[in-house]
Amino acid sequence: MAARKSLLQTELNSSSSDDDDDYFILSAARIVQSFSNEKGKHGGSVHGHQVLYRDREGGHKRMFQDYLVDDLTYPQHIFRRRYRMNRELFLHTMNAVESYDDYFVQKWSAANVAGLSCFQKVTSAFCMLTYGVPADATNEYVRIGESAVLESLRRFVAAVVDIFEDEYLRSPNEVDTTRLLALEEQKGFPEGTAPKVNYTINGHDYTMGYYLADGIYPSWATFVKSISQPMGNKKKYFAKAQEAARKDVERAFGVLQSRFAIVRGPSRVWDTETLGNIMKACVIMHNMIIEAEGAVDPNERFEYGGQNVEPSHESNRTIDEFIDPHKRIRDNEIHHQLKEDLIEHLWQHFPDNY
Q1: How much is the pLDDT for 278?
Q2: Could you give the CA distance from residue 298 to residue 232 in angstroms, rounded to a whole number?
Q3: How far apart are the first and last CA of the chain?
């Protein structure tokens, strides 16, 4: 490069002292000729980067034979275990993602070499989602590089959220809320009707909903905690009932973790947006699996969805109107009164549930 600059400067200097246009053109031609005679270096590769021949086409064919042909290598129950869903639902999800994001469409190079297939990219994403493995763990079977796996997962979860969020991650509607409240009522923990809450327990009226919580939460009116060392039959029965009902949520999240191991693993290299999409995508696919496989009580499924519960858009409250419910939420006396009422309520009306 230094030699090129020296030659260029010499020619320009000599031509600038001469007013003859022909001489200037001749000098420029000599510069171009000298540059063209030099052997150029290839600029398309990264210095020090070793290109691996992974036989991507062969990898796709083996995967296709293993899981997607009629005379497949691995039966349906193994597909279900590895992808956490049946083949029909997987194909539906994969085809939707491929149609949504051109990144998943298989492409061909100028040398007519096939790129990674959609099946390979989506499978690599599922390997990380279902097994929680690092990106380079999929290299040998899927025949895909680490950077491509990370990009595939990032774009896959984003596509799943964009495509299916409205249907499978919507806000609870009136029918959903009624069903959930009825289920909790059957377990002995009555609640009101959202968004307004009004209920009576043991002769006392309450106007706020509550959460079943463990001992680490504060003694607020909106938390009903268990009793760590219950004394007497009533309190022992309440502790058993409260912990059993609270376990429902924990078990639900446990099922999600067992299906998608990435949920319980470290965040690794993901940014905040991708972490959110990973969590949403896992919940969405969990709901899709339940719907596709019918793994819920048919009596809990409603044909008509009803209208979504909308938040209030009334005028802003005054500072006093804001502080008053804030104080009531933190009311220690109401917290203990509610617990005592629930203890009596369970003992009187649901003596054989637990």
Answers
A1: 94
A2: 39
A3: 85
Nearest Cα to Cα of residue 284 among 81, 129, 173: 129
pLDDT band at 104 (very low <50, low <70, confident <90, very high): very high
- Mean pLDDT to the nearest integer, 169-196: 70
Do residues 107 and 101 lie in contact, with contact meaning Cβ atoms separated by under 8 Å? no
Cα within 13 Å of Cα(345), Cβ side:
21
Contacts of 340 (CB under 8 A, 6+ apart): 202
0.85 exceeded by pTM: no
Residue 172: asked if its preceding bond is cis (omega within 30°), the reply is no
Residues in the chain: 354
d(CA 14, CA 202): 106
Residue 146: its pLDDT value, please?
87
Q: How far is CA 132 from CA 128, 136, 270, in A?
A: 5, 12, 13
Pairing mode of beta strands 199-201, 204-206: antiparallel
**What pLDDT shows up at residue 254?**
75
Q: What pLDDT is stored for residue 313 in this prediction?
A: 47
Pairwise CA distance, residues 138 & 146, whole Å: 8
Question: Tokens representing 263?
Answer: 């949920």
Nearest to 116 by CA among 51, 45, 57, 52: 57
Give the pair of three-digit tokens for residue 352. 């054989």
Asked if residues 98 and 105 have their Cβ atoms less than 8 Å apart, the reply is yes
CA 295, CA 281: separation in Å to the nearest integer?
19
More confident residue, 284 or 112: 284
The rounded distance, in Å, linking the Cα atoms of 159 and 122 is 11
Cα–Cα distance for residue pair 119/106, rounded to 1 Å:
9
Any idea where the domains of the chain sit in the sequence?
56-168, 174-269+317-349
- 316-331 residue pLDDT tens: 567 777 788 778 888 8
Place of tokens 């959202």: 194
What stretches of the chain show up as alpha helix (H) in DSSP?
2-16, 21-37, 56-67, 76-83, 87-100, 118-131, 139-142, 146-168, 174-186, 233-259, 272-293, 319-329, 332-349
* Structure tokens that stand for 129 in this block: 């989602």
* Residue 354, both tokens: 């637990």
Backbone angles phi, psi at 18, to 5 degrees: -115, 130
